Amino acid sequence: MPRTADTLARDEQHWQGIARQFDLEPGPINLENGYFGRMTRTVAEEYQHNIHWVNRSNSVLVRQRFEQLDALQIRGQLAALLGVPDNAVALTRCASDALQSLIRNYNRLQPGDQVLVSDLEYDTVKSAMRWLARQRGVEVIEIVHPHPASFDSLVGAYTNAFQRYPRLRLMPLTYVTHRSGLVMPVQAIAAAAREHGVDIILDGAHALGQIDFDLTELGIAFAGFNLHKWIGAPLSLGFLYIHPERLQDIAPDMGEFHFPSDDVRARTPYSTPNIPALMTLPRVFEEHRAMGGAATKGARLNYLRHTWSEALRELPGVEIMTPQDPRLCCAISALRFTGHSDQQALVNRLLQDYNLFTVVRNGAGFGPCIRITPGLATPLEHMQRLIQAVTELARH
């Protein structure tokens, strides 16, 4: 009888087998897996093979095979992974590129309209929205989410903004916030946005591969994603999504002419991509499915996060930045030492005294925090080391 994702999540022997698929460099324990994900050994080997193949064959391979056959098949496999039509996705270098393309080419704004930005968005997205406002003569409305957050407070913050600012037309929404790992209630927020005529551009950079979602159920028409975080692809790969019925609301990028105006691929800059990395994607998708996909990966990562965060949640001198609500949690979480103004000093202590590598994140209304992100190769033992380290540091 097949085991459930939750059962597998607690099976250390199973995940030791998964960990053996990765080559790990000796050194500090990496609890900053949110930056980018490791490739498995077989994916890295295939990537290297593709680099040499493309280098040997040069344009003969690319013109005769990749452009005419491989690229189309890879795009189809990507669309199948998301459960969307082929003509809804276009490959980019990363989620930031995808989101910038969607933001700058959104063509439904008129002078006097308003756009909404929250403190939890990625800084590149914030700056892109402010640029868009200057270019289109629209007003930027900025909100700061209450902390600690709850499902109702997050939805309520947007509902209140929609009611208070009736000229709102567009907003970005980060599915998994990169500072604290808070998972936004996307479906509920998107439903409220539709009622008030507000379009959402979803930042799915940290979501794909660890959250099992359906874009149609979420009610999302525009989104950008990474493939190099939880899917396990080489660096430099992402994509954008546009619901086919909304394609004309995103203009071709700077008059892009290499594809027809009714082709989603015209919504991104045309350039020579990382062809060897793209050629590696079929193996990446195969291994992602073999590991159980987002459901199984997400269950394991949530288990590791839950282990350390709940052990420390009541510890004096420590604040866990994400709530206990399972709807709002994922692999990424964060903490801060409440008796210390300099969180970087504690990051340094975690590394120097306990061999634990973490990172400080700034920029949200709740202030600086220490981001903790286990990975697929992280054993439960590393969470126990983190618990011990934070407990000892909190006493001093």
From TrEMBL:
Assigned keywords, A-Z: Lyase, Pyridoxal phosphate
Q: Name one Pfam family in it.
A: Aminotran_5
A GO molecular function term, named singly, is: lyase activity
The residues covered by the Aminotransferase class V domain are: 42-343
PANTHER family, alphabetized: BLR1280 PROTEIN, L-CYSTEINE DESULFHYDRASE
Q: What is this protein called?
A: Selenocysteine lyase/Cysteine desulfurase
